[in-house]
Amino acid sequence: MSDIRTPSSSSVSFRVNGQMVTLDLPVHALLLDVLRDRLGLKGAKRSCDIQVCGACTVLVDGAPVSACTYLAVEVDGRVVSTVEGLAEGDALHPLQESFIECGAVQCGFCTSGMLMAAKALLDEEPAPTAERVVAYLRGNLCRCTGYRKVIDAVVACGRPRAGT
Amino acid sequence: MLRPFALHRPSTLHDAGHLLDEYKGESALYAGGTELLLLLKEGFLRPAHLIDVKRVPRLNDIVVEDGSVLVGATATHRTIERSPVLGISCPIVPAVAQHVANVRVRNVGTVGGNLAFADPHSDLATLFLALDGRIMLWRRGVEREVPLADFVRGPYETARQEDEIVTAVRLFPWPARTTATYVKYGFHERPTLGIALALTLDADARTVVEARLAVGCVGPRPERLSIESELRGRTLVEVLADADRLASAAAESIEPVDDLHGSADYKRDMTRVFVRRALAIVGARAAGRDADVRYPHTVVV
Questions:
Q1: Pick from A5, A77, A91, B232: CA 20 to 30 A from residue B121's CA?
Q2: Is B38 on the interface with A (CB under 8 A)?
Q3: Do A49 and A80 fall into the same domain?
Q4: Coil/strand/helix, residue B125
Q5: How confident is residue A4, by pLDDT bands cut at 50, 70 and 90?
Q6: Which residues neighbour B176 within 8 Å (Cβ) at sequence distance 6 or greater?
Q7: Predicted TM-score (pTM) of this structure
Q8: Do B34 and A3 touch (CB under 8 A)?
Q9: In this structure, is residue A111 part of a structural domain?
């Protein structure tokens, strides 16, 4: 992509949850709309639409972003991870297991964003303290206010890996 | 949903400048988009062309230059959070960066974008004012440098001309024997109040020889406070004993405005409270004590 000008649409190739996709997208398309409406990945939610609530959190090259306020063309040549890619077949990701174990889900609306943000944290820091989890997940809001159990779940998931 | 626009991705500043000239009045510079895309969604801005400067090489560099540090405009908050150069020269910057907004915004949002949008509720603008920040502006191969205090003119208003590109912010590391804090307070996404206080002591470790006090988010633009001059030349012990009066004087000297974060009176009073607290924190740290303080809805760096 060395061209100075991109017309109003662009061919965008990226890997999403392990699978390569190539789409012809308008350059003003938002990543959240592309994931939900073009690829049928409805795990990331539109809620505040201003990068505050975290319900639309997905990872781009492993880093959490707000898909609601992120141009889809930015993921060209990159790797996108959504909550749909966490489990392997019927085997849930350890974080998902931990969320279930700790009862860290109430209505579930924020859960996909919580999981993706927590995954990014654990990839960065395998055994974060509760304080670190609170700081990292500051931007993921749970309107059921079930924070305590979410924090417990992330800390618990990190712990077994601490010694390995 | 965004209104359609064309996206340009120049790979040199020269090309970016050319595009700015070509699409004058109908374009916007774009980097992280964490501020710009919000305005586009609301229709406050309707540019037909976005000029993406992220592909301009070295525009996200962080380098030491003549006793100052140049932080490139497209460096993200996460980049400055992890920058070894800043960690050594201006350690308060990475420490504050990790508390800006949330991790998603920090991964994408840039230093240049934050300053160029001049949202009055900016951590970086307040902190950088206390680091005597200067904004580098580029136009057709010519660079000019504007003190941050002059660059930010008011809410969402800067000294940047339409055809200029913010390329970097220059920061001046504090001298040795400087003790500092950045305290922010608020319960919205953006801070209600931010205070940066840095006191430099004489070799005797008693006398304040330099003082920097910046307050932001409470008014249309961050300010360095005139009471800095009352701190210089006095011993730290004297300053701390006089903290109540100094905090009141600081609060009187600002020009707060009403907004969703609270009334002007409320912000003035919170300024008084937090200047007093910042003085106590710096005082404790300068004396070698850990200022282990916790206040509600407050981040102490």
A1: B232
A2: yes
A3: yes
A4: helix
A5: low
A6: none
A7: 0.93
A8: no
A9: yes
